[in-house]
Amino acid sequence: MSAFFDQYGFLMVAIVQQALLGMSLWYPLMAGQLSLASIGFYSLGGYIAAIMGTNPWFAPWREALGPAIYPLQWLIALIVSALIGLAVGIPALRLRGIYLALATIAFVQVLNVLVLITDVTGGAVGLFGIPQPFVSRLGYIWFFGPLLVLALIFSARLTRTVAGRSFMAIRDDELAAQAMGISTTFEKVRAFVIGCALAGVTGAMSAPFLNTWNARQSSFDASVACLAYVLIGGARSIWGPLLGAALLVALPEVLRPLKDARLIMNGVVLVVACIYLPQGLAGLLASLRRPGKEAGHA
Amino acid sequence: MLELNAVSRSFGGLMAVNDVGFSVQAGEIFGLIGPNGAGKTTLFNLITGLTPVSCGDIRFDGHNILGLPPHRIATAGMARTFQNIRLFATMSVLDNVRVPMQAFTRAGLLAGLFGLPASRSQEREMLEKSMALLELVGLADKAGDPAGSLPYGARRKLEIARALALKPKLLLLDEPAAGMNLAEKGELSGFIRDIKQRFDLTVLIIEHHVPLVMGLCDRLAVLNFGRLICVGRPEEVRKDQCVIEAYLGASHAAS
Fold first, then answer.
1. Do A161 and B112 touch (CB under 8 A)?
2. Cβ A169–B82 below 8 Å, yes or no?
3. What is the ipTM of this complex?
């Protein structure tokens, strides 16, 4: 058993970590907004944690706080991400559909360039030797696990609150939502900021987990991967991002015996899932549980 | 209640609504008729703020509502239905009626997440009111179904219930009888009178079906090619030369 955890501990924690990034896109999608900004806020949160963990300026803090520095990093990442999310979201969410996605991609690129030319972020080399609170990789489940549970509870509650219903109304019909008294701009920004804050905290937890932090954390590929978790897992279910991340993070490992052909298999699985699972894995599971009822319902 | 003054809207070179002015009195059922493409729905969109006005002036309940965002106009007491039915299709029938009520709630996101008493009593109140409205339109037993799964007639009714959930003073109905048979149309007429009494409404209605409009409306406005060609009581409008020309063509009018 312990050999199993030694070998797959990193993978299991990575699934939870990536699921959190998927969830951060799930909130804007709940309000019908396609954003790819999460990876930028993930990067931002990571730099906050990395700088607080390695920069000599913070040495007295680290000494005084001990392990309590970690929750402080999360809190600061949360606040900074939410504020920047607000500043980015208000203009960006005036755009719709694909234009919002493009604007958020642009935001991530701008952030990457800023990171490369700034000294405190370590430029192109990045920051390394970030202090690690756990000896084994599996230990980080104590960071990401509770956050995922909180995010899932939050999502489940959200669908039953005033705000969640407003999000879903906008997703179903934005024009009708406006005509029914919903301030669509306010609600869209709110959904976006919730996602940004979650991505920021996930990033702050990830910096010690990965030990180093650099601009490659927020690549375009990683952006698209986050979106794929939600779409493959199912955007209409709170379990979607977790299911999607579990499949997509584990898949390359499972397919490892295929050597280079695994990339092809990986792609095939994605395409098949897109075509045959419009509601994602979560939709598939729901229809298996209630046979027949969901069949004709797209 | 509602006053339009020289309202115009152009799309490119097309004057969809051209210099239209009329006023709707409180407590009236006011009909808006005209041939296809006359600009009726555009006028609804202008009144509800979904489309900005090119020029002119719209006053609602004594206030200028020009330039207000649609959700502010909605909460000021103006609710509408749509010609092509725009429900929140994946949400439950109950949630469709509950969403407009949320505009008047006070307890915030955190209160809702933690199930604080303020949010709970608010949710209970919304649930009661929503069920009462669904009872009224005969959809209470479908409360849990997704709105998109309802048959056509039920969707029309649900849209009216959803509009009523905004507690409007003015209800705008865009072709509520479209696609209904004669019996259903007669029933709808009675239903509109009934909700008007019960909720103390003023009603502005777009409708093609002439007998329904003539029987239901206190006054009518007729649009043709974006222009207002006649306003008056149904019997006056029926005799009006311009209206006959617009509907039947000039030669018919002459003969």
1. yes
2. no
3. 0.90
Structure tokens at A104: 């958020």
pLDDT of amino acid B251: 61
B133-161 per-position pLDDT tens digit: 999 999 999 999 999 999 988 999 999 99
> Which of B94, B99, B119, B126 to mutate to probe the A interface, most A CBs <10 Å?
B99
Sketch the domain layout of chain A as residue ranges: 2-219
pLDDT digits (tens, 9 = 90+) for A45-91: 999 999 999 989 999 988 898 889 999 999 999 999 999 999 999 99
Task: List, as ranges, residues 56-75 from B with C-beta within 8 Å of A.
Answer: 69-71, 74-75
Spatial separation of the C-alpha atoms in residues A262 and A239, rounded to whole Å = 26
Residue A196 in tokens: 């940004």
Is residue B220 within a helix (H) or strand (E), and if so which, with residue range? strand B219-224
pTM over 0.95: no
Output b/e per residue, B182-214; b: 16+ Cβ within 10 A: eeebeebbebbeebbeeeebbbbbbbebeebbb
pLDDT exceeds cutoff 80 at B249: no
Cα distance from B147 to chain A (closest Cα, Å)? 11
**CB pair distance less than 8 Å for B112 and A163:** yes
Number of Cβ within 10 Å of residue A66's Cβ equals 9
Select the more confidently predicted residue: A294 or B59.
Answer: B59
Question: Residues in chain A whose beta carbon is closer than 8 A to a beta carbon of chain B?
Answer: 154, 157-158, 160-166, 168-169, 171-173, 175-184, 190, 236, 297
Q: Do residues A13 and A137 make contact, with C-beta atoms less than 8 angstroms apart?
A: yes
Determine the residue type at A128: F
Burial of residue B238 (CB within 10 Å: 0-12, 13-18, 19+) is middle
B89 with A176: Cβ contact below 8 A: no
How far is the CA of B179 from the CAs of A220, B150, B153, B154, in angstroms? 49, 15, 8, 12
Which residues, in sequence order, are bridge partners of residue B9?
A: B17
Number of inter-chain CB pairs under 8 A, A vs B = 95
Q: Work out the percent of chain A whose per-residue pLDDT is above 90.
A: 55
What's the average model confidence in pLDDT over B68-72?
Answer: 93
Domains of chain B by start residue, with CATH = 1-77+168-255 (3.40.50.300), 89-166 (no CATH)
Average pLDDT over residues B36-61: 90
